[in-house]
Each structure stands twice: as structure tokens, then as C-alpha cells.
Amino acid sequence: MSRHDRLYRKLLHILPAHFRESYEDEMTRAFAEVRRRDGASGTWLHTIPDLAFSAIQTHGQALREDLRYAARKIAQSPGMLLLVALTFGAGIGTNIALFSMVDALLFRPLAVAEADTLVSIQRGPGTREPTSYFDYRDLRDRNVTFSQLAATFTFPALVSASTEHRRMCSLVTGNYFVTAGVLPLLGRGIGKEDDETNAAVAVLSHALWQSEFQSDPRVLGRTVLLNDRKFTIVGVTGPEFTGTHQPMLTEIYVPLSMHSVFIPGVRETEATRDQRWLVPFGRLKAGVSAAQAEANLNAIEAQIQSEHPELGDSEEKRIDRALHVTPTGGVRVPHLRQAIRRGATFMMAVTFLLVLLASVNVTGILLARASARTREIALRLSLGASRRRILRELLAESALFGLAGAVAGLVIAYVSIDALNHLQAPMQGAWRIVFDARIDHRVLTYTLGVALLSSLLFGLTPALRAMRIDPNEILKEGTAGSQGSRSGNRMRRGIVVAQFTLSVALLAILGLFLRSLNNLYRADPGFETARQSFVYLVQTNEASTFPRFYGELKRNAEALPGVLSVSLSTNPPVRLGNYSRQRVESATGQSLDAQTVFADGDHFVTNGIALLRGSTFPGNETRPVVIVNQALARALWPGGDAIGQRLRIGGRADHEVIGVAADSKYASLAEDPQPFFYQPLDASRSGNRIGVTVRTAVAPASITPRLANIVRRLDPTVDVNRSGTYAEAIDQAIWPTRMAARNLAGFSALGLILAISGLFGLMAHFAEQRRHEAGLRIALGATQWQILRLFLMRGISLAAWGIGTGTALSLLAARAVKGFLSGVSPTDPATYAGVAATLLAVALLAAWIPARRAARIDPIATLRHQ
Amino acid sequence: MTTSEFHILLSLADGARHGYAIMREVELRSAGQVKLGPGTLYGAIQRMLESGWIEETEDSEEGERRRYYMLTAEGRQAVSEEAARLQQMVKLAQSKKILPARG
After folding, report:
1. What phi and psi, each to the nearest 5 degrees, are found at residue A135?
2. Residue A526: inside a domain, yes or no?
3. Closest alpha carbon within chain A to B27
4. What is the DSSP string of A273-311?
């Protein structure tokens, strides 16, 4: 045999074993004969493709045979198929549903032409700052890397058609629709000439067209009121385009030049490049990468800075003004994407725990099945079946089980996706989250991948165990492996431990979330929430008219029946996280950053904030005064009295401290006390935003619309930016945590059911195997109680192992969830103790029933049976 | 029936052959147009053994035992049906003036 022939014989190993074993001699001989006739090189040239082709064909055939055989086997036990499909389906179903949501929010390209060449442009270190109009114009006109560069500003506007609601409205540059590559369903998009001529035209979203105009095909030319101003409808977008503020739905588009109707004050300040309000996005020229475009834009930015020395040229400023180009697969808002990605990653991790738990359960079921088939396999082995063949059949079986589970999972996902699509955050009325989660080819591919990987996970253990079967021993012994399955028992014990480990992780996450939700609900915000209602306004008039308007507003509100007191402030306390920050300094030179608000003298009584010392603002301040909170007083004048002290604000004049107010929450309900101070509201200087809070003796919800009515009656041009009761606003603030906790509660309940069912099965199996032992012990004089205790202890010691491992692993991984919790440590001992106690109780219950059965065994019958 | 199967069955029409002899016969009869590699050949042989179109005999040649394959009645039936089908196709092609009608 020449070395060519030997090489060919080696290469034959790519063929399936049973085929190769039958024909390798003949094939090698045929190869040798051809080679002798045609020469080595020509033969090889012909043989390599031949071998590759026949490898594919014979393997395919072998796989088909394995699958057919496996399917026949599975069909013999439909009950087990159902059990596996449901167990695994429950685990994978939630995972699929969540993936489809994540896919819709983050990965699926937007419904715009060639989404991959659309990029978002953001400014600043946090990649979340918009840019000024002048900056946008320079970037648009000077760049060489974009074929189009558009910009938009999205905000809630009052839209009046057949109903009147606040809806998200996008101010768009004239090239917005061209840049996005979106063709309207009816009419046209906002065009260049609209933007240049300040045309009062609007393009409706498909949703708005349906709800407000009943999908009227003759809607073009009709008018819609936006903040009481008439706009002519010139187009309607298709249903698939939901705007560029995803996942928020944009409902109406108007030219950017109409901004003065909606955003007062921009006109005065637009000369400054620090008025950052536009979100630019662009379409890259062919062959240009996002990095090249970013370099190009930053070069222009450097030019702008050199042309405008008033911008300053500190290093800080440069970092602050740096531009970032993000390929978003369309135009989505990057900082929203970041927030979503964070939450989604977390939830995906939790559902993967579920998939793991389900897989571990299925492993248990398949192990039981394999041990029941030990004799059959031993028989086949002794009749000459190859181990490899049996391994392949078993793996094919678990792949089919996995696919059955995937199908069940898809059904579960299909049902839950509908619920996911209706998730609606109760944010400011106008904001509506839209995403279209659905089962498409991407989700199917994902499902198939997870199902096959998991089936390998749960199929491998039983299959490998079957590989170690010694046919002689099994067949000689005559019983289905009652003694010979020591390794099987070890695996089963391993599975129980794994189940408990995973359950601890799931329950610990849920426990921590529930505790932090509870903390949020119970957290004392430091102001009253039960009897308050508020409106938050944006003024559109000249600043000189503010004092009269605010005065009338307050008087009218005070006259409402049921209103106890009214206060004005630049930010009502319930709008958490909206205060401005200033540097303050004590007379001794100590300084710190504190949040602040301008408020009138009724602020404390109306909001139920206790004034601990001193008095409130008199209302006719003749000298600069200030009220500080406890935290600020403690920080600047520890141990002393704050009243009468001087506080220097922002490096300007000294203010006298005339009161100390109790600490309350300012940025979030979960925060520790923060330094804060109150300045007297001066309507002529306070800016165009004002909050009105009322404290009522009647239901606050009944007052809210009346407050809004007063505003409209006094001045219809004033924008009611937000309104509601304090209780509603608090509810909205904790919505994300509440929703996460609700989902997690579902996941954990499912996880617990999986753990319990798996545990019951395994415990029963153990007890069944130990019948003989129990019988023997009873025959030797053990009492029922001793047997019961023996069996219980076995179950509990396994559970204890699992709980111990799970707790240790969870504590190690706990830091990952820290950012999602409030007021509770990720290693909170009470939570872990509670989880351990719950699971121990479950283990006790699961061990109890089989243990009792074992204790009642009739020893005579058991021993005779042997 | 694949082309290689058809060729292999035809090559067995006048008696049992071993693997290499089949390859040579097919190559010869097709004037070098069809060259079967060992992989294709034995893949087809395995399938046709399972369908019962051919059967295996053993014989010795120059003192070495080799596997010979011969047509079964079913195999003969199958290859003649396939030939008839191909003849029908040729007639169709001729009636459409794709092929010139010969004799």
C-alpha cells in the first residue's frame, strides 16, 4: 500500500463510521487501482471533491435515519414528550418573548430606507446632549461626509382635532424626510420650502390619522390645531414609520421654523451656541464610515471654536463640545438605547436562569428515561450495536425534545408578546412607547439556537451515562440497574443541587427587587403627597407680563372650592430630579454643591414640608434671604445654629439664612439626604417655567382639571407642560421598578414551580430506588420514625448544598444588580435568609411524601421481591 | 434515480462486477464523460443495496476476496423503467424540434 493509499484511507474518516467500516477496504482498493492507471495527481484532483460530496451525502442520510429513529422512540412515550415540551417551553418561552422585545427595541433596523447608513449625532461626554441651531447649521453646510444632515426636536404639544390631547410632536428641518428616506403614505413630507417660509403645515403620523381623522383619505388640506394655532395637513406617514425618537411614538411633524409657536424663549437665546436643543442625524455618503464622519464633524467643531472665542477654549469645554457619531441602525436616541440595553441585559440574564433551570429539570426527566431504558440499551449493545450509534440516537432524541420545547416556547412567547406590545409607561401623557415585538426570522433563528444548545446541555449527561453501560453486568443482574447506577444517583444528586442553586439566584433577585419596591413605596419623600395637585407651566409671553399673570393665577386658584393653600415655585417638589444646582459657600469659606428652587412663602405649608426653625419667606423681601434644609445646615454649620448665618450663592452676594426646613427627596425617592436651599420667588426674574401646587380638602384629582382651566382662561398661549396629583406623579416615578418587579415575580414563580416539580420527581425516584434499603432496615428493627428521618435528612442535605452554593454564587454576582436597587444592599442578609428558608421549606415538602411512603414499606414484601 | 445510479445499474446489466470494474465500465461506456469517484460509487451502492436493486456476492480474484455486485430483478425493472422514461424525454425533445429526429 503506497503512502497515497494510506492517506486516502485516513481521509475516509470524515465519512460516518458505519459507512466507512463497511466500505473502507473496497474504496481504498478502488482508489489505488485508479491511481495506478491515471497517476497520483490526476486521481487526487478528482477524488477530493468526490470525497467531500459523499461525506455530506452520507452524513445527511445518517442524520435523517437517527432523527427518524428518535422520533419513533419519542412517539412511544407521548406523556414524556408533553412533560418535556411544557417544562422546557415554559423556560424558553419567556426568554423568546423578551428577546423579541429587545430585538424590536434595539436591534431590528428602523423602517427607513437603508437604515445602516443613518447615524445619530450627539454632543458631550455623556453622548446625550443635543446641539444648538447654529452649530447644526455649520455642521450641515461644512461637512463632506454626509449626503444629508437633518435635525429634530421632539416635545409634547396640545393637538386638537376630534379630541384634544397632548401628543409628541417633532419640529423637523426641511430635509428630515429626505434624510430618513421615508415616503409619506399620503401627500408629502415637510419640505425645504416649508422650513424656509415658516409655513404652518403639518404631517400626521399614521396613528394620529387613524384616531383623529378616522383614516379619511381626503384629510390633506384640512387643519389641525397645535397649541391653538392652525396648521394645514399636507401629508400622512405610513404605519411602519413611528418617528426618530424611538421607542417613543412621534405623532405629528411640523417645520422647525415654527418653533416659536411651541418653545418660547428660544428666539432670544438662539444667538448663543449653548442653547442646545436640536438632535441631529444624518445619512452617510457612500463608503464613508461613522468614524470618518465623526472626525470630519469634530474638525468643523474646532473651526467653530476658533471663530467664536466667546465659547471658551478650556479642555473641559472641548470635551463638553465633542461630537459623537453613533450608527444606530436608523435614528434612535442613543441615551434611551443605553437605558434600554441596561434593563434588557438584566432581564435577559434572568430569563437565561429560567432556561437553565428548565434544562436542568429536563435533564432529570431524561435521566429517569435513560435509566428505564438501561436494559434495552444493554441488549442492543450485546447484539452488536455500536456505542457511537446509540449516542447519536440519544442526542438526536434530546434535539427533538428541545425542538418540541421550542415549539411550545414559541406558542407561550406568541401569547405573551401581545401583552408586551401593550406595555405602556404612564409617563407624561404625551409619551407613548411603541415597539412592534413579533416572531420573525431573527427571533426564530435565536430560538433554534437556544433550543439546540440547551438540548445539548440536557441531553449530554444522560447520553454519556448510557455510554458507560456494561451490558454483561446489566443483563446478568436482571434488574433495571438498581445497584449498578451509583453514578446515575450521583448525577441526580448533582441535578437537585443545581436546581436549588439556580432557584436561590432567581428568588434572591426577586426578593431584592420586591424589597426595593417596598422601600420606594414606603419612602417618606419629605413632602405630603395625599392632598396635593399641581400644574407645571411654560410661559410664552414677554417676561414683563409674568408677575401679573402669576398673581392672578394664584388668586384664582385660592378661590377654588376645597383649596386650602396655593404656592408657586420654579419646580413643584414632586417633579423629582428637575432642580438646578449651585455652589454655595459659608462665611468661613466652606463650600459645597447644592440643589435649589425658587419658591414663595406658602411653599412649605402647601407641600407639607416642615419648617424646623425660623420662618418662611415674608413675601416682600427687602434683603437677600434664604432657607436651607437640615443636610445643608449640618454640612456648613455643624453643631451650630444656621439661623442668621450668611450663605454666599454662586459667588455673588451673601444671603441671610432665615429658616431651616426638614430634609426631603429631591432627585430620587431612594436618595440619602442631600443639601438643598430655597430662594424667594421673584416672578420677574424666575424664568418662564413655573409650577403651581395646591393643597386641597377634597380629592386632589378633581382640582387638577380646574387648575388647567384657570390657566387657559387667563392666557391660552401658556403651555400646561404637565399636571396631575402628587400621588400620580410618584406612581409614575416608580413605574420602571414596579414593572420590572412584576415581570420578575412572574419569572420567579415559574422558576419556583420548575424547581418544585423537578425536586418532587427526583426525590420520588430516590425513594423508589431505596425501597430495598428501607425494607431491610425495617426488618432489622428500625422504627418508621428513623426511616422517615433518614429519608428527610437526605433530601434536606442536598437542598442545603444547593442553597449554600446558590447563596455563595449570588453574593458574588450581586454587584451586577446594584444599580437596579434602591435602599437595599445587593447582599441584604434578610433577603437571602428569606430565600433560604423558603427553599428549605420546599425541600422538606418535596422530601416528605416519598419519605413517608418509604417508612410505610412492608419489609417482608420488599425482601421477598428481591 | 440519480445519474450515477443509472450508470452503475447499466454497467451491471451484463454480469456481476466489483467496484473498480464498475468505475472503469462507466467511464468507458460514457466515453470518459462520467467519472465516478469511490465516494460517489459506494454511496450509491449502499443506497441501492438498501432499495434491493443490487445484491452483493463475494468472489476471489488473484487470491484476494473482493465484493461483487449484481443486478436483482427489481434493479433490472428499475433501470429499464428509467431508460424508458429517458426515451420518452428524448421523443418529447424531438417533437419540440430541440433534438433532430433520428431514424
Report:
1. -60, -45
2. no
3. A34
4. TT---BEEEEEEPTT--HHHHHHHHHHHHHHHHHH-GGG
Number of domains in chain A: 4
User: pLDDT by residue (tens digit) across A458-506?
Assistant: 888 888 877 777 777 777 665 544 444 566 677 778 888 888 888 888 8
Q: Domain range for residue A278?
A: 115-331
Contact A660, A644 (CB under 8 A): no
Alpha-helix residue ranges (DSSP H) falling in A609-676: 630-636
Average pLDDT score over chain A: 83
Residue A315 banded pLDDT, cuts 50, 70, 90: low
Query: A280 pairs with which residues across the strands?
Result: A151
B3-95 belongs to CATH 1.10.10.10: yes
Among A331, A363, A380, give the residue marking a domain's end.
Answer: A331
Contact residues, B window 34-53, toward A, CB-based 8 Å cutoff: 35-43, 45-47
From the list A28, A31, A54, the residue facing B40 with the nearest CB is A54
Best B5, B42, B46 residue to mutate vs chain A (most A CBs within 10 Å): B42
Measure in Å the smallest separation between the Cα of A38 and chain B Cα atoms: 12
Q: Are residues A496 and A605 in the same domain?
A: no
Q: Does A75 score more than 90 pLDDT?
A: no
Q: A with B: how many residue pairs have Cβ under 8 Å apart? A: 59
Residues of A with Cβ-Cβ distance to B41 under 8 angstroms: 27, 30
User: Quick one: how far is CA A436 from the chain centroid?
Assistant: 15
* Nearest partner of A463 among A524, A391, A382, judged by Cα: A391
Residue where a domain stops, chosen among A695, A730, A765? A730
Report the chain A residue with the minimal C-alpha distance to residue B67.
A26
